[in-house]
Amino acid sequence: MSHGGYPDKGPVRTGTAGRDAAPGPAEERSRQQALTSLSWRLAGGDPQAMDEFYDLTCDRSYGLASALLGRSEETEALLYGAYMDAWRTIRNTPPTPGMEMRWVLSLVLNRYRQRCTGPDRASSAIPVSGE
Fold it and tell me: 35, 41, 97, 129: which could join 49 in a potential S-S bond, CB 3.0 to 4.6 Å?
C-alpha cells in the first residue's frame, strides 16, 4: 500500500536507539551532510531517499516518541504519521539545510501535541504546571 507516493514499509524500525556511545564530531558532520543531501532528494520525490533519511533519523525520533509515550503501538503510529508528514510537506517546505534532525523531531512533537489535544484525547493531555 502507498500513502502520498511513499510506499508503506510496515512496522517502524528502531535503528540504533540502544547503542551505548554517542557519535563523534566527524560522524555527526557526516550524518548532517547526508541528511542535507537526502532532504534535497526527498523534495524531488525520491522514495529511496525516504528510506535512507529514516534510517539516519529513526534512532532519535523513536527515542523522543518513546520518551513521550513509552514503547507501544501508539509510539509506532505517531512516528509513522510524523514521517508521512515529512514525505508530504518536504516538497513545499523543506527544512533549512543543517536543521533536518530538528525538523523531523518537530514533526514528532507536532504529532504528539495533536494526539494530546485532539477532540477524543483532551482528557489525556499532559497538564501544564500551575493548572
Answer: 41
* Residue 58 CB burial class (10 angstroms; 0-12, 13-18, ≥19): buried
**Grid cell for residue 94:** 523543506
Between the alpha carbon of residue 28 and those of residues 15, 24, 43, the distances in Å are: 16, 6, 22
Which domains are delineated in the chain? 24-124 (1.10.1740)
Residue 2 phi/psi, 5-degree rounding, is -125, 145
Residue 121 has a pLDDT of 54
Query: Who's near 11: CB < 8 A, 6+ residues apart?
Result: 76
Q: What is the pTM of this model?
A: 0.72
